[in-house]
Design goal:
Length: 495
């Protein structure tokens, strides 16, 4: 998607003849006196709507107003902010997203936006405002032919007397990373192949002065990537093992590791999935998409940290050489895995990614992202990502930044007893747990086997949070970009 131009002007520089002027109202505070004095006719219209109950200023409720002979704007759009006592920065993120959607519905290209008449925005609110505008205006139209010449929002002016330009730019950059992750997820699997992901990583690496290494199918046996090699056997599409190294912090800085599941299409393999909903399996690479989205933001803002990213990427298909139930694979760290279900493939490619990154790099923290289990959707729905950990302090950090960014995570247990569920009689471990019990946790217990001892690690299952069938204010139907804002908030806290 294209990102619009965004600028800040003080209230003394209020632009005239705007297509639209956006402002917010709290449901419990009424119309500010300053607004009444500046716009008496508009204030009367709002009062009538409030008195009649047609507009209650509930969160994300909108009211479009017109004022004849007004020099400021052709139309004014009031957006409800809800109860002021419950206000958070996420309310502003939602409201600005609602504003962007309304602007697009009206096919407007330029707008001015303020926040409830306050002249001074704080940094957190400014970042949330920018994020909401970008995320709310997201559209994926790459394959849709349209005779409509409207191309979306082009310019946004934010009114504030605060120095918020850096915060707005940061919010724009983070949101651009989310948009990239969404785009990667939205592309069909015949476009967003492992090669496409590797090409995207190359573009990001060049922008961010990163080292990029891509291992091919012919390298897997030599490297010991038995998990990726096994899953990739049934597909003619070339798999990739992508490694990105950003060393922007120097020798003394912390190093963060990221691993993302890049399963670009999942048929289930020999343990084939039902045909209903199989088109959605192009979303099985959203963990890898999140990692690439994060690295695109890193390339832009260049934080004072070191960040290593690994994306094992392949299809899981049913070709003549496809791996089978009963096979035994050997992962990078030498552990053997009995295959009981070829549809539990994501953990196999992550096993190589986790084992490799913790063997080759000294990490202060490691996070992996994957659309790994349907069980996490049963447990948490589509609002939280599930996390498991081997280090509570690190998990607490992710929980905290998740609440701040509203890219939220919910911790599930990972006691040693769960390791009993993945023991195999003929190999070190098996790739399924105890039937239908604790499927998400069994997957976490499996992955823990491939994290080098002493590395603080969190597994983030985004099978529910990664994509939606019904959109929300700043999340569209389809891929959400879950994980990008979460990790960017973690990076900010580590700098």
């Amino acid at each position: 998607m294209s990102i619009f131009n965004l600028s800040v002007k003080s209230y003394n520089e209020l632009p005239e003849e705007q297509d639209a002027y956006i402002f917010g109202l709290f449901s419990d505070q009424g119309i500010p006196s300053e607004f009444k004095e500046s716009h008496p006719n508009l204030a009367q219209q709002i009062e009538l709507a409030l008195d009649n109950g047609e507009f209650k200023a509930k969160l994300n409720q909108t009211l479009v107003l017109y004022s004849a002979n007004c020099k400021i704007a052709k139309r004014f759009i009031a957006i409800g902010l809800g109860d002021s006592s419950k206000y958070t920065a996420d309310f502003l993120r939602q409201v600005s997203a609602t504003a962007a959607k309304n602007i697009i519905d009206l096919k407007i290209t330029a707008l001015t936006i303020e926040f409830m008449g306050e002249k001074y925005l704080n940094i957190e609110d400014a970042q949330a405002l920018a994020e909401g505008l970008v995320l709310g205006s997201y559209r994926f139209l790459n394959y849709k032919k349209s005779e409509d010449e409207y191309t979306g929002i082009e310019t946004v002016t934010v009114l504030s007397d605060s120095d918020i330009a850096p915060a707005l730019n940061y919010g724009m950059s983070v949101s651009a990373g989310v948009a990239l992750a969404r785009d990667l997820g939205n592309h069909p699997s015949n476009i967003a192949t492992p090669t496409y992901l590797a090409d995207t990583a190359e573009t990001i690496a060049k922008t961010g002065n990163m080292k990029l290494t891509v291992y091919e199918r012919e390298d897997f046996e030599k490297m010991g990537f038995g998990g990726v090699q096994g899953v990739a056997q049934g597909s003619d599409v070339p798999p990739k093992f992508i490694i990105m190294e950003y060393m922007g912090g120097g020798d003394d800085a912390k190093t963060l590791g990221l691993v993302g599941k890049g399963l670009t299409f999942d048929s289930g393999g020999i343990s084939i999935k039902p045909s209903a909903g199989m088109d959605e399996m192009k979303f099985d690479m959203l963990g890898g998409a999140a990692v690439l989205g994060i690295m695109s933001v890193v390339a832009d803002i260049k934080p004072n940290l070191n960040i290593i990213a690994v994306v094992p990427a392949t299809e899981n298909m049913n070709g003549g050489e496809a791996y089978k139930p009963g096979d035994i694979l050997t992962a990078y760290n030498g552990k053997t895995i009995e295959i009981l279900n070829t549809d539990a493939e994501g953990r196999l490619i992550l096993a190589d990614g986790l084992a490799y990154i913790t063997d080759k790099f000294e990490l202060d923290g490691l996070v992996d992202f994957a659309t790994l289990t349907g069980a996490v959707v049963v447990a948490l729905g589509h609002r939280y990502s599930g996390i498991m950990t081997n280090n509570q302090d690190f998990a607490d950090q992710l929980i905290t930044v998740g609440e701040k960014s509203q890219d939220r995570v919910w911790q599930m247990p990972l006691d040693d007893e769960y390791a009993e569920d993945i023991k195999s009689k003929i190999a070190d471990i098996k790739n399924t747990g105890a039937g239908r019990e604790a499927g998400t946790i069994a997957a976490g217990a499996f992955l823990r086997e491939f994290v080098k001892e002493g590395t603080a690690w969190c597994h983030v299952d985004i099978a529910g949070s990664g994509w939606l069938k019904k959109g929300r204010p700043y999340h569209p139907e389809g891929p959400t970009g879950a994980g990008v804002r979460l990790i960017m908030e973690l990076i900010k806290s580590w700098e």
